[in-house]
């Protein structure tokens, strides 16, 4: 009994004591960085061991018994500040403090924490926890740890995202290119591929990336052409001490090393800047470049230099400069390959190539310049200029049978192709604060891209007893020239106004209203010159490795062959007019976001209105009379995001929205894109889809570096668009609204855990992460709808089916060990990563044929990165360790038919860097 009385007395005393405490709260900011929040700073009550750290937003809060104290604010590189305070029971004291530089010597250290905060995994997790938006981010630290060298691979390390094999195209929750969008610093960037909406993310080196943000839940700040997700690439800027860093490396591909003769078409420079154009008098004179091959040593190299500095301007101003320049190349080969073209429902192929090889040489030259000008603590302006030049030179060979030649499986088709893309992005960004209530942000951009395929050669031969002969069917032997030029101007304007101030000095609500606009123009031209042999020379024996012996000026003059285009033969003056299409797209939008926090519930309600105009004008092989088609749409796009703080480390989030999906220029232009095994044509009557989106997410942050989250999501799409095989003599693939509805539902689970953390003089950490997604998709497939709405006919094999690109299961997992020594001047990080996706549909089955399916496979990579001392670092990567066979099949009722099969080989790279 006495024990119970004593326990109750102590309990009441404890309650009374806690209730009599006062609270100190506030925000620490950085004077040297435009009064931005200062995360991870120290807040301490002098003479006690009571203290805390600021969070990602610079906020802090702690409870103290009543009395007179001195509160200390400190952070490395900053002046420490001491403020006397009086704490009163049951009252909250708010102190907002700005910390300044501790002196010129330490000035460069000042913003290192701010810089690292956007690159470190712990800081991005903390930002994810505190943000209202539902998003994921992957920073420079995690990218380095996992050996990620490009943005396409970076985003696949996050939940629910996978990449299409052999490309930089990504699928977000089973939704492909047309459903996603790409931005850089929240401004749009163009595509480098005439057949795609989004830029190939492979070309973005992570050397220029601070972090990548992936938004899979829509809110009013984005353009409404959004159903899968938006990838926002945040470019690096200089924050920290001055530095200069050099890096060089080498890479090999095991398949490429095994190729007896790694030979590609002559005449293209190693740097990837070679330009070619249609030669003069191409129909009557043979002025084409050589068709001969040259050997290359398949050992790749890479070079990188980066640096940054900053200096003061006046009393409050500061200019910072960051620059990066890099060049790298690589040699790849696909081995053990086979390929088929269109296959009937009974398994008969019109093209059956028992041998398929693909060797290629790729280059990437990147330059980034960032200039930051802090006019004063309330006004900053940033300028970004990014230039990326990429090239791919490839030789693809197919040996076997096709319907119009190669009797007995003796055909040989060789395609030599060179693709060159030059992207130039220019951005001007500004931020202006007006007292504590309001802020104005603006951004302007001008983007330009040139995507060229200069002088692609295709040759089709038959093997006979004496050697090889040239096939003379229309287009079997040709040279092809393609040019794309796209220009876009875009603007973002937004104004924030805070309202409903509390006694503690915080604001419960915020209005954000603004404008977004973009004007885009694309010009696309293509000309194919077909070399048609005269009947009297069809049996001439030729050398596949030296076709210049047959295709030359003398033989052209002697009528061994003639050169024609789709418009006519060599005597027609109009024959040189290229096929073309021109696309113009204007989008103007206004939006209003209202954010309000009531206790633990924060709600953001958005309304966005957009006016869209898309016009296509064309004159092509399929339609040689100039025509145009207009698509207009007015969209009202409401959305709501709610965040409820279940506990200090737990959140429950809800997102609801309406969006749309636009068809792309190439999908509406009746132009013929010819691959060796497939042919694509546009559909001018394709129209936009409407999308309805739902997300529900629970997340728990046990520790700074740990996360557990579970997400359920659903998407309902009206009039979904798909790639399908239309009824035609050549079984062409086009784009149609395949039914009235489709939907995707699924769940995502993410778990990050620190298994070991020995924080002594020499730290040791073992951590693991895994994220898994399960998707279920279904859509109506309505042949009558397609016939009614288009000029095409489609006979779907099934009345319902999955979305193309949707895998039922996606998995990413990694295990990392970090060891630090030499007073933390040296370290080693070793990471093993594994990624897997289950079967996914590549194209929907028609005419009793089954769906074309990319079969499941997994990828295992190993990364080791070491900092030998304060200046020297090493990196070693082994990618595709398992080297699985990549298969694409057609799932017919009587069994799967393999359409494409190959292995990529292992990739090994070693690099060294030195920093001054």
Automatic annotation (TrEMBL):
The keyword Calcium does not apply. Residues 451-881 form the TonB-dependent receptor-like beta-barrel domain. Residues 135-229 form the TonB-dependent receptor plug domain. InterPro entries: Beta-barrel_TonB (IPR000531), Beta-barrel_TonB_sf (IPR036942), CarboxyPept-like_regulatory (IPR008969), Plug_dom (IPR012910), Plug_dom_sf (IPR037066). It is found in: Cell outer membrane. Its main location: membrane. Belongs to the TonB-dependent receptor family. This is Carboxypeptidase-like regulatory domain-containing protein. It comes from Flavobacterium flabelliforme.
